[in-house]
């Protein structure tokens, strides 16, 4: 993993951070590193996430899911951090047979259930509390679909949940394979645990190699100039405080599209509090050059673009053509073209004095995605220390959860206040 | 179509716009409306897009694609505005057999081509100039895949292009069905033309009904208090100038996920210039309540959230359960739950004094998507007038296009400057 912050320096971009400011910031990084290391040593809430490459036992996961590892498909029923890690890993491994139900859209749920051969499908249902409304509603629907299809759902379901609650009780009652959500790890930091790894394990992927990738990034030294994760977290923080309120995560690989979604959750829920926090927005190279690049290059100077690419990927040759205007495409490869687009976009932003950071991984494979996920998590924890906020909580979503529950259930203070909406309707 | 701007008023949110400021802004809306109407009357560049519901002939499209309308699948080869409109319409109509190749990722292109039954697949290849690097490279690969599969590609391909260039010459040489990209309409405004409609026409959808939906929105009166499109464009502009530099487009329907991508292109390329322009970011309800809502509600006060929902949708019943903690879910519907999440999120933002706008369409169907696309286009054109920028160009992407072409071809000034990159690498 290489992180290149050259195009985020004040000598190159505005906003940008000067070398001198980085040197000063590095002293704060060293202190933050001490705090993080203490949290890791004591397995403190949140910080424990950075120990997952060591504390997660891949064999235990593989053995627990063995009863369903004949499945051709895996359906992940979860939402937010209970789904995004698994989806990100599945996509990075090129496995399109791991699907996710992470929304309660009736049309979409019906379509997914009608397309899946349920007798060949394993289900992981993921909720720490066992009461997440969207997840449990979907699970009840999925369970009924199995029964209607004549498939014994108790033979196909793995629960991933906490020590108590409805899902744990269900697992106990029906003797389902059950994995524990790791203690002290918020959902958005749980990709390198049973939560993110179980679906890949069911499908036979080498989840040990994913954890090994995480381990490659887990040995952090106390300087942003030596640790890629800290370089990223510190520079993103420094740019935010200098006006880059937006962080556009733009991988150049379709297999990292879900990674950008995962990053958006990590960054938003961890850092978006107390009136602080950079807005993460998701983009995809080269596609979004024809959508977002105009604004990144010529809009307000409030956007950091994070460009991610693998150094190696299989290529696909573009056939030769005798048309003069297209001859330059012949005998190149689609991957070569994609890499050229990457370099051109990076240079185009630099030419306009807009900040970007380059993240390079060797390949999008087991170790590559493990290393990338861990690096971004450590970057986020560092940024949280620099902001001085509570990185591991998400208090602002609780009000809405209670209101939604009240609206479909027995009512409560929050749901009553929904009715007070101010209207100014134009139709 | 209803647009509710009540939660964007200064009495409710910060940033917000006062009723008095809206009244003053409405005078500028009236003048902008005059300018827009003149542009429409004279079919001026860009403004002509707002005439598409009248000027697009659905029968001509349907007749032109008749030679391939037996296809079970349609593959759209295009990028940016040449793909997003078609993808948005396909998704809104629930048609998962219209696929898009809008990136030059070798793995992804290989996978799509391996999954498609090519003998039952029609291809629309879309590029005004006929030289867009990504599109033409993909088309050369697709054409070879047909040949290798023993399928005569000249029987399966429809071109959608300008009056000249390689694609036009190809169509002439092989007598392919050919549709014209409309004159004077930038790609991102071309959804309601052959560009957006041809794939749906091949699959037998009622594209006349989509255009009828557009017509419902096309009769604009000169006040933001009477025209939903102007209400949206004017309030988004007013909030941006008051600090809402970000516009989070958050539909509550999986079938509108691509719509949010389409909107992001429309908003970015049209308004992101001269140092101006709101950053559009894409979200999805209810999923992103567990990802982005924390920051929308508790991060910096720089974000407008646009909530979109259909008033009607088919529902899917959640089975009853005897578990006490889950009993409130029983006998509700997934759609009912999704609507409750919508209301809860809207109220949750209001309770925190964060601005939102509600957009309601009747249903996500042919007329609904036509009306929604047109409304957002008219909103964008109005916003462009209020910003005082050139809405219909995208000059900032040209540098990168030349650089990329230089990197894989004969070299040029831009590609040479790519090599000058400043590096500060941490690994």
From TrEMBL, chains A, B:
SUPFAM superfamilies: SIS domain (SSF53697). Its main location: cytoplasm. It catalyses: alpha-D-glucose 6-phosphate = beta-D-fructose 6-phosphate. Its EC number is 5.3.1.9. GO terms for biological process: gluconeogenesis; glucose 6-phosphate metabolic process; glycolytic process. This is Probable glucose-6-phosphate isomerase. Belongs to the GPI family. One of its GO terms (cellular component) is cytosol. It is an enzyme of class 5 (isomerase). Keywords: Cytoplasm, Gluconeogenesis, Glycolysis, Isomerase. It comes from the Archaea. The active site is at residues 269, 290, 401. Pathway: Carbohydrate biosynthesis; gluconeogenesis; Carbohydrate degradation; glycolysis; D-glyceraldehyde 3-phosphate and glycerone phosphate from D-glucose: step 2/4. InterPro entries: G6P_Isomerase (IPR001672), Phosphoglucose_isomerase_CS (IPR018189), SIS_dom_sf (IPR046348), SIS_PGI_1 (IPR035476), SIS_PGI_2 (IPR035482). It comes from Halococcus morrhuae DSM 1307. Signal peptide: none annotated. Catalyzes the reversible isomerization of glucose-6-phosphate to fructose-6-phosphate. The lineage of its organism: Archaea, Methanobacteriati, Methanobacteriota, Stenosarchaea group, Halobacteria. Gene3D superfamilies: Glucose-6-phosphate isomerase like protein, domain 1. One of its GO terms (molecular function) is carbohydrate derivative binding. It is found in: Cytoplasm.
